[in-house]
């Protein structure tokens, strides 16, 4: 069997239904084999970065590795930002790049390049992949592909890269396709489980902090069942705002640098925290780490290096969250837990005192982004997922979207890559069998991968695009207000955005623009009417350029102290 044919058949047998790529000479063998030998849907993107983001979202939604292909040289290097996004946000993915023929590789020669577009992508990708392989022996292909899928999914999921020279792709091998090797699960020390339960019972203000690890383990239902037994409220990180429905009685809110003020206060005033699949990074806790060490914290994570990394004195639980929750549930169902009513009442009081829709002061005739997110949610019950890009709109969405049971929320967290959401929506919609998804994106982010509007139209995807157009790079503009005396270089000065309604029309996408609060309900309902329900549409939402993102941690202070009422004591380092 030709190696390229083997790769194609292998991918199909692993359950891959869509792959994302931008064609190039060094992957033509694989693309032809996919076309001739499989029913895999080849989604041709307009930039390799977009292909990588689409694969990222596909992997998050399905739990199977998203697959993206790129040719050698610039094609391969263009994947790197998306590969990094998969790595930092724990998305399973396999990236396959073409490489020049083996006889065209420079090897140990003291030169920069021998073959045209020859680039050592394996070395470049190593720091942001779980593994990277250069295949110089055709007979190694079956084992490497098997390893790539296993590595991408085991433990903390992430990306794997396989670089295959063109002459290897057309070589002949005679090997069967094997099945994916299963994961081995281990039980948790019963003493740890007993201690967790004892400390929860003793705590007066307990919380569960949920991170992306719960979503990547597909463990949201187990989490909620156990939390309901324990009567412990849940706060979430940015990548886990969809881990518990908006209207669930145990949901407190979203914590972090731009978290809901009431959630940050509750987080800061808790006396017990069970951390499930969260890294406790600086955007979750603020810079004052000593503030957090004055309470009982159990940190459950599948990577030892993440525990007691920034926040010290955590009780370490090195485990997969599924295993931990299974073992915890086994004991929890035999115990009785008392609801801490005073704690519930206090949190509910904070929500009433600090509502998200009152954090911003905007003119009466302009759109308040937080209020808009609630209106968008009310109209978008048919959406299977929300995808937010990176910037002020991302935080407005995380603060105020009313995500219902079964809806997903995808965004770029650790990489924080502008341009993520539009191509990621393609991967998400396809992973969800072309169900509609909502993209929330800023005018700056929209211009990074705007070319994928054509991919959306060509594939007839029901993607609903909300462009929050404040005509500047708002989050950095706010940063310049705080630290650079409102000198808006490259955010407002020297920056422009087009009329996205006209851009959409050029691609054949129905679109409209709104700028006043009284236009919102009609627009978001129009997006879902009978004519638009199964088609892509775009709404351009004009926002005042000086609309800020509040609340925001006053950098250098504890997480409970947030702008605009508290002021930072040092410049943000991240």
Report on this model:
It is a single chain. By secondary structure, this protein is α/β, with parallel strands linked by helices. It folds into three domains: 3-169, Rossmann fold (3-Layer(aba) Sandwich); 190-353, TPP-binding domain (Rossmann fold), CATH 3.40.50.1220; 357-550, Rossmann fold (3-Layer(aba) Sandwich). A six-stranded parallel sheet has the order 2-1-3-4-6-5, with helices on both faces. Strand 13 (385-388), helix 17 and strand 14 form a beta-alpha-beta unit. The longest helix has 15 residues, at 48-62. The N and C termini lie far apart (51 Å). The model is unreliable at 179-184 (pLDDT under 50).
Give a quick summary of the entry.
The strands form 4 sheets. Strands 2-1-3-4-6-5 form a 6-stranded parallel sheet, with helices on both faces. It has a 6-stranded parallel sheet with strand order 9-8-7-10-11-12, with helices on both faces. It has a 6-stranded parallel sheet with strand order 14-13-15-16-18-17, with helices on both faces. The chain is of the alpha/beta class and 574 residues long.
């Amino acid at each position: 069997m030709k190696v390229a044919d083997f790769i194609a058949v292998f991918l199909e047998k692993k359950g891959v239904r869509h792959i994302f790529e931008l064609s190039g000479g060094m992957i033509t063998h694989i693309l032809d084999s996919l076309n001739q030998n499989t029913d895999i849907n080849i989604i041709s993107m307009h930039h390799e970065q977009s292909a990588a983001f689409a694969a990222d979202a596909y992997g998050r939604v399905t739990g199977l590795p998203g697959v993206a292909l790129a040719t050698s040289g610039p094609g391969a290097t263009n994947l790197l930002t998306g590969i990094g996004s998969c790595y930092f946000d724990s998305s399973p993915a396999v990236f396959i790049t073409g490489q020049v023929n083996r006889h065209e590789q420079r090897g140990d020669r003291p030169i920069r390049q021998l073959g045209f577009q020859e680039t050592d992508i394996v070395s470049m990708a190593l720091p942001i992949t779980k593994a990277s392989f250069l295949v110089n022996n055709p007979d190694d292909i079956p084992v490497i592909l098997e390893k790539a899928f296993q590595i991408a999914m085991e433990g903390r999921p992430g990306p794997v890269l396989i670089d295959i020279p063109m002459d290897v792709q057309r070589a002949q091998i005679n090997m069967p396709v094997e099945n994916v090797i299963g994961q081995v699960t281990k039980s948790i020390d019963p003493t740890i489980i007993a201690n967790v339960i004892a400390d929860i019972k003793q705590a007066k203000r307990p919380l569960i902090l949920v991170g992306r690890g719960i979503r990547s383990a597909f463990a949201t239902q187990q989490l909620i069942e156990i939390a309901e037994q324990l009567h412990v409220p849940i706060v979430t990180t940015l990548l886990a705002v969809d881990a518990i429905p908006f209207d669930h009685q145990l949901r407190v809110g979203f914590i972090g640098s731009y978290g809901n003020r009431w959630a940050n206060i509750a987080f800061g005033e808790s006396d017990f925290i069970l951390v499930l699949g969260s890294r406790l990074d600086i955007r979750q806790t603020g810079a004052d780490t000593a503030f957090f060490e004055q309470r009982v914290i159990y940190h459950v994570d599948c990577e030892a290096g993440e525990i007691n990394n920034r926040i010290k004195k955590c009780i370490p639980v090195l485990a997969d969250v599924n295993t931990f929750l299974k073992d915890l549930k086994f004991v929890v169902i035999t115990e009785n837990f008392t609801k801490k009513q005073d704690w519930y009442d206090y949190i509910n009081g904070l929500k009433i005192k600090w509502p998200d829709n009152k954090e911003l002061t905007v003119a009466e005739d302009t759109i308040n982004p937080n209020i808009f997110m609630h209106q968008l949610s009310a109209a978008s019950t048919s959406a299977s997922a929300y995808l937010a890009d990176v910037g002020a709109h991302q935080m407005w969405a995380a603060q105020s979207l009313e995500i219902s049971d079964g809806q997903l929320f995808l965004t770029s967290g650790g990489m924080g890559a502008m341009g993520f959401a539009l191509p990621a929506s393609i991967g998400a919609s396809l992973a969800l069998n072309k169900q509609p998804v909502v993209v929330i994106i800023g005018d700056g982010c929209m211009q990074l991968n705007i070319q994928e509007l054509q991919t959306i139209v060509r594939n007839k995807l029901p993607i609903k695009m909300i462009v929050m157009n404040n005509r500047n790079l708002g989050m950095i503009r706010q940063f310049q207000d705080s630290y650079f005396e409102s000198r808006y270089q490259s955010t407002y000065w020297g920056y422009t955005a087009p009329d996205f309604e006209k851009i959409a029309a050029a691609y054949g996408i129905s679109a409209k623009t709104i700028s006043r609060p009284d236009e919102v309900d009609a627009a978001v309902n129009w997006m879902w009417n009978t004519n638009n329900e199964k088609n892509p549409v775009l709404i351009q939402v004009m926002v005042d350029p000086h609309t800020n993102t509040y609340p925001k941690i006053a950098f250098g202070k504890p997480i409970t102290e947030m702008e605009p009422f508290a002021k930072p004591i040092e410049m943000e380092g991240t």
